[in-house]
Amino acid sequence: MSECVLYTGYVSKAGYGLTYNPETKKTISAHRLAFKQANGYLPKVVMHVCDNPTCINPEHLKAGTQSENIKDCVQKGRYSYSKSF
């Protein structure tokens, strides 16, 4: 796999790059915009194959579902949740 391309702009507390989408005139995650520019469409979920939230390398991004994204997080030990009682 090629190396990560790290987003150098504003990064959220969650570690994802945020940028301006001129098409919608709204803020968007940098990796989502990179995926759209490379593939011509924007799926509901864009997953990082490299597990690096600041990476914007289109080769490291893939379309997925929320279910697939959560399953990927659980399998890699990155998913946590808290229960409210």
Please supply descriptive tags for the structure shown above.
single chain; 85 residues; alpha+beta; two-stranded antiparallel ribbon; 2 helices; 24% helix; globular
Integer average pLDDT: 90
Helical fraction equals 10-25%
Computed structural class: alpha+beta
Overall radius of gyration: 14 Å
Q: What series of H and E elements makes up the topology?
A: EEHEEH
* Terminal-residue CA separation: 44 Å
Number of helices: 2
Q: Within the largest sheet, what's the order of strands?
A: 1-2
Largest sheet: 2 strands, antiparallel
The percent range for strand residues is 15-25%
Shape: globular
Structure description:
By secondary structure, the protein is α+β, with helices and mostly antiparallel strands. It has 2 helices and 4 strands. The strands form 2 sheets. The protein has a two-stranded antiparallel sheet with strand order 1-2. Strand 1 (18-21) and strand 2 form a beta hairpin. The longest helix is centred in the middle third of the chain and has 10 residues, at 30-39. The N and C termini lie far apart (44 Å). The relative contact order is 0.20. The model has no long low-confidence stretch (mean pLDDT 90).
Summarize the structure.
The chain has helices at residues 30-39, 66-75, and strands at 18-21, 26-29, 45-48, 61-64. With 85 residues, the protein is of the alpha+beta class.
Describe the secondary-structure layout.
Layout: E1 18-21, E2 26-29, H1 30-39, E3 45-48, E4 61-64, H2 66-75
Antiparallel strand pairs: 1-2, 3-4
